[in-house]
Design a protein that fits this description.
The protein is an alpha+beta fold. It has helices at about 15-50, 55-85, 90-110, 315-330, 340-365, and strands at about 115-120, 125-130, 135-140, 145-155, 155-165, 170-175, 180-185, 195-200, 200-210, 215-220, 225-235, 240-245, 250-255, 260-270, 270-280, 285-290, 295, 305, 310-315, 375. Helix 1 (about 15-50) crosses helix 2.
Length: about 375
């Protein structure tokens, strides 16, 4: 039989143990909450010791400035928490909510498929998205009136489409990176129509322009202005064929007036200026030098024409007349782009119809109450 065990020793906790544990817990909590402050104080003491041997402003005052702003930040933080009765846990929950909202917003910005997007300026897009960008077919409504229906690439008009403005102006044709580019037709609210080539949003190349009074120009354009060869048929029956520069008759050309007169010669900034001949069925032709539309010479002479104290040879005048006729012939034989324009307009109308269908489907599949509101509208050029 095993001997009976003796009485066990009991170690009763003294009154010092709980006090020590509480002190250690308080010290650890203080270190956890004020660790950065203690490091900063240590840094201040170290810099103060170092500044005894150095007169550098940075080492003397920068730690003090950092300590001041750090203390101000913590003071304001405690004031805000106390004023709004927000606990530390509530503040962290608020931060998590903000992060969650930002994540959902970024996720919405990367949507793909059909969607309806509203912008804070009132613009609305209905159509296809790819990775949150307007891409495919869709309709964009301007808050101030007007719309675009057509193809998109990376949130820009690109491909074929139809753009309408609030004043009634309309463009049908090709786009590239948000601008009319290629072949297309533009008609403004006054009735002026241009059909032809476009580059970076401006008429550039070959085209035809019809004005509200019925006048028509067919020829070359550069940066939105008549430039090169072309012929202009005026409403009153007059016509000009020849060279243009910066939107005006400039160079050599032939002008037939409504009264039957015919001028063949040089032009400068829209006026007859230089050598030329003006003839009619009722009188002798006037030839020689012209300035601002007025003849500076008399009639033909046998050998020379006396003009303002100097003479002009017949050969020089005839050369100017021949150059004007050559320029007029070139103006009437410029390439026509009607077929390319018609094809571009037909493709633009088809793209607009496809965009309208995509927009209608987007409205049907999108819950309007769940639209994402964006800070900035799409940039239009």
């Amino acid at each position: 039989m095993a001997p009976a065990a003796g009485p066990r020793r009991r170690y009763l906790p003294s009154a010092v143990a709980p006090t020590l544990r509480r002190a250690l817990f308080t010290a650890v909590r203080f270190l956890r909450h004020h660790f950065r402050l203690l490091i900063l104080v240590f840094f201040l003491l170290l810099s103060a010791t170092y500044s005894v041997y150095s007169k550098a402003f940075l080492t003397d005052y920068l730690p003090i400035i950092i300590a001041f702003f750090y203390g101000l930040f913590r003071f304001l933080r405690h004031i805000i928490l106390a004023a709004f009765n927000v606990s530390e846990l509530g503040l962290r929950a608020l931060g998590l909510s903000i992060k969650a909202f930002s994540f959902l917003k970024r996720r919405a910005n990367r949507r793909t498929g059909l969607a309806v997007q509203s912008y804070r300026n009132g613009d609305v897009y209905e159509g296809e998205l790819r990775q949150g960008m307007l891409h495919g077919s869709g309709v964009y409504y301007y808050s101030r009136g007007g719309m675009y229906e057509g193809e998109w690439i990376n949130s820009k008009f690109d491909g074929h489409g139809v753009e309408t403005w609030a004043d009634g102006s309309k463009y049908k044709g090709q786009f590239k990176e948000g601008l009319s580019h290629g072949f297309g037709v533009y008609q403004d609210h006054a009735g002026v129509l241009y059909a032809g080539e476009w580059v970076n949003g401006q008429s550039h190349g070959y085209g035809m322009q019809t004005y509200e009074d019925g006048s028509r120009f067919v020829g070359q354009y550069k940066c939105g202005l008549k430039h090169g060869s072309g012929h202009f048929q005026f409403r009153n029956g007059g016509a000009h064929a020849g060279e243009y520069f910066a939107g005006k008759m400039h160079g050599f050309g032939v002008y037939r007036f409504s009264n039957g007169q015919l001028y063949e010669g040089a032009w400068r900034e829209g006026n007859r200026k230089g050598l030329g001949v003006c003839s009619s069925a009722y009188g002798e032709p006037q030839s020689g030098l012209w300035d601002d539309g007025e003849s500076q010479s008399g009639l033909w002479d046998d050998d020379f024409l006396e003009i303002s104290s100097f003479a002009v040879n017949h050969t020089q005048v005839l050369d100017a007349v021949q150059a004007a006729r050559t320029a007029a012939e070139k103006a009437y034989n410029i390439p026509r782009v009607d077929d390319m324009v018609n094809r571009a307009v037909a493709a633009a109308e088809n793209a607009a119809n496809a965009a309208a269908v995509a927009g209608s489907l987007a409205v049907q599949t999108e819950e309007r109450d769940c639209r994402v509101e964006y800070d900035f509208p799409m940039q239009i050029v």
